[in-house]
Amino acid sequence: MNQHPAMWGHPMTPHQAFNAHTAFPLATPNPMRNQHASSPVSHTQQPLVTGTSVLGLKYKDGVMLAADNLASYGSLARFRDIQRLHPLGNHTCLAVSGDMSDYQYLKKELDGLLREEEALSLSDSHPALHPSQIYAFLANLFYARRSKVNPIWNAILVGGWDATKEESFLGYVDLLGTTYSSPTLATGFGSHIAQPLLREAFEKKAGIDGKGELLTAEEAEALLNECMKVLFYRDARSLNKYQIATVTKEGVQISESKSAETQWGFAEALRGYGAQQQ
Amino acid sequence: MFRNSYDSDNTTFSPQGKLHQVEYALEAVKQGSAAIGLRSATHAVLLTLKRSTGELATYQKKLIRIDDHVGVAIAGLTSDARVLSNFMRQQAMSSKMLYNRPIPVARVVQGIADRAQTNTQQYGRRPYGVGFLVIGRDETGPHLYEFSPSGTAFEYYAHSIGARSQSAKTYLEKNFESFESADLATLIQHGLSALHDTLQQDKHLSTSNTSIAIIGPPSDEVENLASSGAAKRGNFRVWENDDVDGLLRAWRRSRGEPEDGPKEDEPAAEPSAEQAQSAEGSEQAPEAPGEDVVMSE
Amino acid sequence: MAMHAERSAALHELTSAPIQHAFNPYEDNGGTILAIAGKDFSVIAGDTRQSQGYSIQTRYARKVWQLTDRAVLATNGFAADGNNFVKKVKQRLEWYEHAHHKQMPLKSIARMIQTILYGKRFFPYYVYNILGGIEEDGTGAVYSYDPVGTYERESCRAAGAAQSILQPFLDNQIYFKNQTPEPGAEPFIPGNLPLSTVLALVVDSFTSATERHIEVGDGLEVYVVMKKGRPTDDLVGEGKLAPGMAVEELDALGEGDGEKTFLVTRSLKRD
Prior knowledge:
heterotrimer, A: alpha+beta, Glutamine Phosphoribosylpyrophosphate, subunit 1, domain 1, 8-stranded antiparallel sheet, 5-stranded antiparallel sheet, 5 helices, 13 strands, 29% helix, C: alpha+beta, 6-stranded antiparallel sheet
């Protein structure tokens, strides 16, 4: 799968050249447009308004998720105040990258499911779905849709706190129905840029088996701030305005939007970047 | 044959406000042999009286596993029970597949109750002719429910359905307050006493007519753990034949009776006991209703 | 005329060329699996890395699954298909248990897997399966599959990313290919190797594949299924395993009075 924000979710053909300058959908020719009427019918779909990578990290008291507030239209920073963290019930939170209309559909679907569960629990007092159970449902939903060749064009992280087992939960699922868990996770560009930083910091304290002491809330937040900053420096589809969700046994808490301190002074010295010299 | 002119379809109320087809379905439940259910803080158990349809027939099984954490005892039409229990299995499977969650017991019971209810409201259908006692264990602990063909599902501390179940109910009502804190062995002994009360004068509980299902932590005292993986895991398991011998002996001891049981239960006398039961077992010759309770509201 | 010919050629190009941007429902998640049958045991192993291109998605994703007390299934290829395939197999096994009050025998599972795979012949599960376990006659068995259900019983099989590295090695060590007994020595008989030798071969296979293949590594899980009543002292006990390895007996899924399944774990290099 192509991780470049402009080509997000597209298949990566072998030996495909990495074109860092595409600004899809504006600059990439759409094959559908030139197709003759007799071409085979296809379910071709592409993400239009997209959110870039999201991050997730297990820490001492639970899980933290981070996502910026941008929804891009190709290379255009189209919507700059979009929340991509979505709480589900008391102990689960989603962080969503990829197509934003599919994200809105997901929110509607899941909120409906949770409301139904809540109604049922009024008569049988059964506890709400645990994070791992919501995650299982999402994995099934994504896999069912990919199997109809009509994917939900997202890569999402599910973070949560399982009140029964008294442990945190963090899982990934994407448009192919691919699932995995890990103490640190990142989607899209973040899997290249932020994931190594997250793993390094996590393993430095918890050890490579993760059995040591985990990061504290302060350390975890500082780490995510650092990662969001690096992503803002390097990911052209990111925005220096992001939120962090914290899921603990106390519940889900989503921060106000914030920005990282950045330094662009060095750019002045770069040829072709600052004021033209020579 | 007809009780009155309002019983030929199940969607018309009688002037007395009754749906006669539903009432008849409840009668079908009473013709099945008895099933008892009890619940403690840790366990839920079912005890049933098996019948055989004749000397050459095996004893009809009355306990059905739905999932690791749910099982039912049936009274009434076995074939209707098969359809309903299969539906419960599908519901349980679908919960496991979709949410990776064992289905909450209340919801799987409500599922069949809703199905049964539609049968009481649609022209050309008939109510199910079977009642269930459902035991299960979920995140809210152990449970016992009764499902009845009228489309109701109620939760109980202890309950009985089937032939002569009122006698068992009398026993349970007298003793249920001690069930909550009872251990598994005590719970089963109460169950056997209640089941015994549903028997006719000349009949006795034996290894061939008694079967017991348990959900809850395993107990060395009452179970042969080596022969059941489900027991070791605390899942729904059924004990019958030789496996209930020890339980029956312990129960007789607790009542101050001879441990081996009454003479006619001994191997030599076994046929006569069976013969007596074959009459009540046949669908054509149901036993007299006796003091059975009226199960409609 | 010439123009017309040009146009139709162009048209042909359009309709026959693959549509570059069509959604591709498949992905290769790397990793490798392997199984070897012994006389009264069977060994089924897989690494735990799940990757996508050059990215390691997770260092621990299960590829080997205990199905019954006598059957273990390893899946490799597209992880989402693998997980959902195993789910479907387990579902079918549960319905079998409802109907028959016993666990499905190995050879029946083997055929059932064939049927499920072929049932999606025209939108296949992109999964290479290896099924290992104990047959009803007590012999160790390995069945291997292609994604659309072709299958056969074998003594050993490797599949996945490092298949081309491991299979020739196993052919040599398990089937004694390209080996000649010393003059006068006993002839080689495949399928008779002791468990300790087989385990050592499995570990060497995976450490070697880890060195030479970027998609293999992180962790190793080896499932050992033993015939009912077989002594376990060649696996369990002090000093039976090489340093860095751990073994645990897995809880039975059925009555627990028959075959035994053990899980041997070991870490692999993470680079």
